[in-house]
Amino acid sequence: MLNLQTESISLKQQNGQFGKNGAPQGTPKSRRRLYQSIVFNFLRAAALINGAALAIILWFMLARGWRAINWEFLTTAPYDSMTKGGILPCIVGTLCLGIGAMIVAFPIGVASAIYLNEYARPGKVLRVIRLGINNLAGVPSVVFGLFGLAFFVIYLEMGVSLLAGALTLAAMSLPVIIGASEEALKSVPDTYREASLGLGATKWQTIYRVVLPAALPGILTGGILGLSRAAGELAPVMFTAAVFFAPHLPSSPFSEVMTLPYHIYVLATAGTEIEATRPLQYGSALVLIALVLGMNLAAIIYRARLRNRLS
């Protein structure tokens, strides 16, 4: 009987149920569950912190800016040293800059991602290119603004204009779009390519008709991220496109524009009556948040419909 008990304890020690001294200990499965619970709780806490931060910012803006928002505020130009009136030129300028940047950056970014993922041969040159793209993604926006000022505004003689600002924002958005598009292309299974090539399609036909449609939802995610960054930037447009006051809407790509980020900056730091315009500052910030969220929401809805259609 004693021998059977000794053999039973020995087997349980081998299975991890008892330690060397015969004391019970947790099984590997229970330890894995504990680690999983700790990690999941950490992730939930991180998500709650991010959500709480967003809710606090929105509540702060709503509590101080909702009184300033009305039909006149959204449809008229500012007047009386920008202490009265609305922000229509700022809304139009921000939309034109964001859309113009995406018109330039999106096709170039997607084409670059296609080359890097589908055509470029692995090697030192490809690693250097990807390293440069990753470094550009971390460059501060003010550096892009100085680049736009030196190259587009002065060297190419575009002046402070809508076109110079859109091109600067496009250059700033390119690394984000390239990175997201390349990851989307990598997520497409190689069996799709092999099946298409096996049926006699050329490499370009395979990319255009098989790979791109499968990767398009992920590519649109990169476009959404690029649009969000372009619409809310201040430093690049401050040097290349935005002006203190422009009562008229832009009439050509070479027109100067007002933008919401620069308008908020001017009202908060360089206005003639900063305290009197405080509600206008919060109202403009609230409109900017709503504008960025609206553009993102439209793109996300289109991406979701496209994904459902492809599936």
TrEMBL record:
Molecular function as annotated in GO: phosphate transmembrane transporter activity
Gene Ontology biological process terms in this record: phosphate ion transmembrane transport
Keyword Transport: yes
Keyword check for Cytoplasm: no
Alphabetical keyword list: Cell membrane, Membrane, Transmembrane, Transmembrane helix, Transport
Cell location: Cell membrane
Transmembrane portions of the chain: 38-66, 86-116, 136-156, 162-185, 206-228, 282-302
A Pfam family annotated for this UniProt entry: BPD_transp_1
Name used for this protein in its record: Phosphate transport system permease protein PstA
